[in-house]
Each structure stands twice: as structure tokens, then as C-alpha cells.
Amino acid sequence: RKEVEQDPGPFNVPEGATVAFNCTYSNSASQSFFWYRQDCRKEPKLLMSVYSSGNEDGRFTAQLNRASQYISLLIRDSKLSDSATYLCVVRGAAGNKLTFGGGTRVLVKP
Amino acid sequence: DGGITQSPKYLFRKEGQNVTLSCEQNLNHDAMYWYRQDPGQGLRLIYYSQIVNDFQKGDIAEGYSVSREKKESFPLTVTSAQKNPTAFYLCASSRISTRTQETQYFGPGTRLLVL
After folding, report:
1. Do B96 and A96 touch (CB under 8 A)?
2. Strand, coil or helix: what is A71?
């Protein structure tokens, strides 16, 4: 089993719709969780951290479920510019090492 | 501007040749990392360094070497022993902190192709 697993998609989303997807992690001792966004042939960029109580940043909402060991990302009112691959990233119990999921591709269409 | 730079953007390697990818940061970060990304896959850690003159192997270090002579610089050499080097190489840096929300920031990447 991979340490961090994501549905690769693509999720085809009409512009203005809501899309949500999850990421599961295997190490129950994981400390920190993040969502990164990666555009085609570009570097990953931090989208948001995921806090235990859940957090929102504009149209983006992240949730953490420690009991079931998954995090989620919800995008409301999708824009064409939201088309990208979203990487789930988990920081382990020790050190600064991060483990990356394979990414979920989102395509927002007019 | 503060950030991470990588060069070159594209690099071509001939059979049996060693090539070196450059990574520089002016964020005053202590830790630096090298990742490899293959199409449709997540990032895999090659090497990382948390202090000058010290570095550790990541998950896929075979066929690669690094040095950390300066805090700002962490070059990666892809040696001829790496049989499948074609990939997108990403350098990252971070502060070293017990703060759980500390994370890594990436350079623009180098795309390596084998001729």
C-alpha cells in the first residue's frame, strides 16, 4: 500500500460547479498535511495547509479526518484557472521529510 | 526577490555522461531537497541536506550524488550509473522547525532528457 494515495482523475468539472476529492494516508503518526497545486510542466506550489479543525481559504476548503486517515479538498464555484493537478502531501512524525501523493487532476470546462 | 532558482531549464544527457543540475536559494533556509518526478507520478526524494557539509540519501539515491558546500547551494549530479534519468527534477528548501506547518518551497525544475 502506498503511503499517500490519491484518485488520479481526471475530474471533469463544469465551470461554477463544486468538486471534492480525498487523499488517504497510511501512517497514523503523520503530523502535518498540505495540499499543493501543480500546473502542467511547472513546480508544485503550496495551496493550503490542512488543520485538524478544517480550514477554508476563499473557495477552497480542506478537512482532516484522523480516525479514517484521510484529508479532503473541496473547490466551490470552480474557475477555468483551477484546472491543475492537486498533490496531497503528508509530513511524518519526525523531521521535515514530506511524502507526496501521485496527484488528482482536475479539468474545469466552460 | 527571494526564491529558489534551478538551471538549466532543459538538459540533455548523452549515454555515459555525468551531468550536474544547479539549485540556489536566497531564502536563508537550512534544509534543501532534491526530488524526481516521472509522468503521472508523485515526487520521490533523491537526497536532502539539513546543514552545510552534510546530506542524507532519500528513497531513490542510487545513480545520483550531491554536495552542500554552501548554505545557498545544493547541486545534484546525475551519474552514468543512473540508467533511467529522464525525468523532471525539482529542488526544494525549507526552514528546520518543530512548527508542524513548516513546509517546503520548490524551484521551477529542470527537465532532463537522454539523447
Report:
1. yes
2. strand
Instruction: Please work out, in degrees rounded to the nearest 5, the angle formed at the alpha carbon of residue A38 by the alpha carbons of A35 and A42.
Output: 150
In Å, how far is B96's CA from the nearest CA of chain A? 7
User: How far is the C-alpha of A99 from the C-alpha of A2, rounded, in Å?
Assistant: 10
pLDDT tens over chain B, length 115 residues: 569 999 999 999 888 899 999 999 999 999 999 999 998 788 999 999 999 999 999 999 999 999 999 999 999 999 988 889 999 999 999 988 766 667 899 999 999 998 8
- Please name the residue of chain A whose CA is at the shortest distance from the CA of residue B107: A43
CA distances from B87 to A54, B3, B49, B90 (A): 35, 23, 21, 10
Residue A2: pLDDT band by 50, 70, 90 thresholds?
Answer: confident
CA distance B55 to B70: 12
- List of chain B residues whose C-beta atoms are within 8 Å of the C-beta of residue A8: 40
Q: Show the beta-strand stretches assigned E in chain A.
A: 4-6, 11-14, 19-25, 32-38, 44-50, 55-57, 60-65, 70-75, 84-91, 98-100, 104-109
C-alpha closest to that of B62 among B49, B85, B35, B81: B81
